[in-house]
């Protein structure tokens, strides 16, 4: 069974795709406008559909006939989303008769042979087209009537989606990849184009398993390969290079970024590969931010040291990494040369150590003895009139290590004190190379 479905929302411009997207994910992420074609890039977000979890993709409107470059780009993105999707939401305007673009989109969807749920959006009572009967001509049966803006018909859409996902044999239940038990250490290589991610994978494998080229962007998809080193199993995930948003080319490269983020999601340890001869860029920092949001293990790998092997240059580069990633003093930095296979096995050894740190469990009694000592050393500082008081702490999960602090009023705990607590946890228990997930809960609240 597959874990998570990919659902693409498609249709001509201004039928309410982004409004439906925001309604399903329960937050305002996609930009909404009455101006047709507002959505240019595809937007991705996880969504719960009854007993199933999926990744929802909002796409730009499908337009046919003469198109300017940006419209062609938008259509290309939408067609790629259709190609990659497991299920398609085909959105039409229930307040009007089907147009030529609706029929053209339907033709593409029938050709894709993907499961399609036809959605008649803007079904707002008297304004809706009588009975939606005209949309039967599209060839997908009766439309599911919804009003995304007024939250009507959404539960019915979720139920219809659940039936399709069950038929497609997706795995029911809440999916949390990071907590699944598995024997291998899953390592994801991410970074800008042409920093040597594929070369590193090949160097570790000892063979040319992944295509390598000096042309940036050679890797389009995330590739998974398996390796055993010192009796330990690893899965190496090579990803497409991530460019700045404005530099991403139209077509299949757009979808590569989704595959990259999905690969990070499925990994235990993310390797940010940087070029030793280049300075740390904002894009490197953006990628690192995403890795941290996913609470992964982190290794920074400086590749191509064969081009600059002087010790002073290494020290200078290490100082730059320390400065740019000052919020990650616990993340190891490894200098390697994929070309000469120098130091590459240290990546596996470090990843194995980080994985052990991610699976570390601390007994609750020991944690509370520890927290009582550090509170005596530094009394909690607050932000409100109520003086914050930490009641107790427990470890609620591993991979990543997750801790819950129960506080009399969590909202009053100052951010600097939260940082102090994490620093003390790390100093006492290690957790080298891995993000920690720390939750603060009030005595009278479920979450804070």
Number of DSSP-assigned strands: 15
Mean pLDDT: 81
- Helix-strand sequence: EHEEHEHEEHEHEEHEHEHEHHEEHE
Low-confidence stretches: 29-42, 66-74, 175-180, 209-221, 244-256
Q: What can be said about the biggest beta sheet?
A: 6 strands, mixed
Tally of helical segments:
11
Topology, pairings included?
Elements: E1 5-10, H1 17-25, E2 43-49, E3 52-58, H2 69-84, E4 87-93, H3 100-112, E5 116-121, E6 144-145, H4 154-167, E7 185-190, H5 197-205, E8 223-229, E9 232-238, H6 252-266, E10 269-275, H7 282-293, E11 297-303, H8 311-324, E12 333-335, H9 345-358, H10 364-377, E13 390-397, E14 402-407, H11 415-429, E15 437-442
Parallel strand pairs: 1-3, 1-4, 4-5, 5-6, 7-9, 7-10, 10-11, 11-12, 14-15
Antiparallel strand pairs: 2-3, 8-9, 13-14
Could you give a quick summary of the protein structure above?
The protein is 32% helix and 21% strand.
């Amino acid at each position: 069974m597959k874990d998570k479905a990919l659902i693409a929302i498609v249709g001509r411009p201004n039928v309410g795709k982004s409004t439906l997207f925001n309604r399903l994910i329960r937050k305002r992420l996609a930009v909404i406008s009455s101006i047709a074609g507002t959505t240019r890039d595809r937007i991705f977000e996880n969504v719960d559909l009854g007993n199933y979890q999926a990744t929802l993709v909002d796409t730009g409107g499908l337009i046919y006939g003469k198109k300017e470059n940006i419209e062609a780009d938008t259509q290309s993105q939408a067609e790629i989303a259709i190609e990659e999707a497991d299920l398609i939401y085909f959105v039409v305007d229930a307040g009007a008769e089907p147009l030529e673009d609706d029929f053209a989109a339907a033709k593409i969807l029938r050709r894709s042979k993907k499961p399609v749920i036809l959605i008649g959006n803007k079904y707002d009572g008297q304004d809706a087209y009588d009975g939606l009967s005209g949309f039967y001509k599209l060839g997908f049966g009766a439309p599911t009537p919804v009003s995304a803006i007024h939250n009507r018909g959404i539960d019915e859409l979720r139920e219809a989606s659940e039936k399709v996902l069950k038929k497609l044999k997706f795995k029911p239940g809440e999916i949390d990849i990071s907590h699944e038990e598995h024997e291998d250490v899953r390592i994801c290589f991410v970074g800008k184009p042409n920093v040597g991610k594929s070369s590193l994978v090949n160097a570790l494998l000892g063979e040319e398993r992944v295509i390598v080229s000096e042309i940036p962007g050679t890797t389009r998809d995330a590739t998974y390969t398996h390796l055993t080193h010192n009796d330990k199993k690893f899965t190496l995930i090579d990803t497409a290079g991530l460019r700045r948003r404005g530099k991403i080319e139209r077509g299949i490269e757009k979808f590569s970024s989704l595959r990259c983020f999905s690969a990070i999601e499925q990994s235990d340890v993310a390797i940010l590969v940087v070029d030793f001869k280049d300075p740390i860029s904002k894009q490197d920092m953006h990628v690192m931010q995403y890795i941290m949001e996913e609470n992964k293990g982190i290794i920074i790998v400086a590749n191509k040291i064969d081009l600059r092997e002087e010790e002073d240059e290494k020290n200078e580069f290490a100082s730059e990494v320390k400065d740019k990633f000052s919020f990650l003093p616990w993340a190891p930095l490894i200098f390697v040369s994929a070309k000469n296979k120098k130091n590459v096995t240290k990546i596996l050894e470090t990843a194995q150590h980080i994985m052990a740190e991610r699976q570390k469990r601390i007994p609750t009694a020991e944690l509370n003895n520890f927290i009582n000592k550090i509170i005596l050393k530094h009394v909690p500082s607050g932000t409100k009139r109520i003086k914050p008081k930490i009641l107790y702490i427990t470890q609620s999960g591993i991979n990543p290590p997750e801790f819950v602090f129960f506080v009399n009023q969590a909202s009053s705990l100052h951010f600097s004190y939260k940082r102090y607590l994490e620093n003390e946890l790390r100093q006492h228990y290690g957790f080298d190379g891995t993000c920690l997930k720390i939750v603060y809960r009030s005595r009278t609240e479920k979450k804070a």
